Amino acid sequence: MHKIIILIQYLLLTTTLVTCDFQAPPLSNSFGTKDEKLKAEKQQKFPPCKSCTVFIESFKKGLEKTERGKHEGGDAHWEEKKLGSYKTSELRLVEIQEMLCTDIVRGEQQCHTIAEEHESEIEYWWKHQEEFPDFFKWFCIDTLKVCCPPNRFGKDCLECSDCSGNGVCKGNGTRKGNGKCKCDNGYDGVRCDACGSGYYESFKDETTLLCSECHIACESSCKGAGPRNCQKCKTGWFQKENEGCFDINECMEKSPCNTKSHFCVNNEGSYACLECDKSCSGCEGDGPDMCKECAYGYELRDGMCADLTSEKRDGYVTFTRYCLYLGLCITVCIIFQNSTWLAAIFGLIVGLYISLSEYWLKNNPTPKQPGQEILEAAMGMN
User: Which InterPro entries would you find in this protein's record (predicted)?
Assistant: First the structure.
């Protein structure tokens, strides 16, 4: 019995050593912060005019949801009378107030604050809405005085500057700002009626100015489209008389990169140093087939630098495994040397175990590393 226990322990030890390289990848889990972001957006604070505008939009949605159309059939005159009374009833106002600010993603808290602090003003407008049909104008501009009409700005709602359609008035529609023009990208001047640095006039008449961006090769100004019209070339470009700016290929003669570990890639007006494949000691491009020399632990095979480390490791593992099998067979012979039948039975079991182990290893190869899978996919090897 003691001999059998020793044999079983040896089998378990062998199984552990054979399968030790097969480890399941670690499980990973990540928790999003979508709810936290949504909560932050709801609590986000807007300027006074914007928050009032958000409130008005929510109120108008409530008006649309509580609007009741006529039903098919029945007494149309009776329906029109009933719907007319409901249209301005306190019941409808209560229904709208119950759903106020519930459909807002950003600024919900401010919307609720306006609804609570100005409930009396809202009820007053509701009773006099025929006299003041524009709720936004009555509430945000005339009553709360946090907004101005379009093209007006500041505390007294003064008239905005004319920005020629190429900019916006600072403070437009609010009680803030100075009324001066904030020009769109590419435009300049007090009235945004000139092209900015790096732009040229592509079209202009009495009412319209269109500015287009200069070519990437131009330093700051140009006379028209393309690199031919640059007045001065940027660094990384050279200028030919009457022909314009041309890109300098920094990688052409001597590479500005560390040639032992990087290779040079030319870009428009510049260059980039990209890292060589780990199998290379100096390279002319990306991948193990572009190496000038193979790095330590790699060998040139079929035009590519192949990793010898994994091959040596696999050979060592195979040699160790067969040594364990041999030791197992010798152990069975020693333990059961006085019993031919027991030696034959356990020899058969050991042989079956070795056969199943080799079959399993053959059909369940070691999982590849992610980098190896990507490389083989790029080269069309799988």
Answer: EGF, EGF_Ca-bd_CS, Furin_repeat, Growth_fac_rcpt_cys_sf, LE_dom
CA dist 253 and 339 (Å) reads 81
The label of the residue with tokens 């709602």 reads: 157
Q: How many CB atoms lie within 10 A of CB 217?
A: 24
Helices (H) and strands (E) in the chain, counts: 11, 14
Q: Is the dihedral of CA 113, 116, 117, 120 positive or negative?
A: positive
Q: Which of 58-62, 81-85, 250-254 has the highest mean pLDDT?
A: 58-62
Rounded to the nearest integer, the mean pLDDT of the chain is 81
The pLDDT assigned to 377 comes to: 52
> What is the pLDDT at residue 144?
96
Model pTM above 0.85: no
CA–CA separation, 355 vs 357, rounded Å?
5
DSSP string, 167-213: EEETTTTBS-S-S-EEEPTTEESTTS-EE-TTEEEEEE-SS-EEEEE
Instruction: Specify whether the CB–CB gap between 131 and 160 falls below 8 A.
Output: no
Please state whether beta strands 237-240 and 304-307 pair in parallel, antiparallel, or not at all (unpaired).
unpaired
pLDDT over 90 at 332, yes or no: no
- In SS3 terms, 298-330 reads as EEEECCEEEECHHHHHHHHHHHHHHHHHHHHHH
Which pLDDT tens digit goes with each residue over 20-47?
Answer: 444 444 444 444 566 666 566 566 789 9
pLDDT value at residue 224:
94
Q: Residue 290's CB: how many other CB atoms inside 10 A?
A: 18
Contact 220, 198 (CB under 8 A): yes
Q: Which of 344, 337, 329, 336 is nearest to 1 (CA)?
A: 336
The answer to whether residues 195 and 211 touch, using CB atoms and an 8 Å cutoff, is: yes
Length of the chain: 382
Please name every residue paired with 212 in a beta bridge, in sequence order, or none if there are none.
200
Go through 293-317 and write b for each residue having 16 or more CB atoms within 10 A of its CB, e for each that does not: ebbeebeeeeebbebeeeeeeeeeb
The four Cα atoms 332, 334, 335, 336 give a dihedral, to 10 degrees, of 80
Q: Yes or no: say if 152 and 145 are a contact pair by the CB < 8 Å rule.
A: no
Q: Average of pLDDT values for 293-301?
A: 89
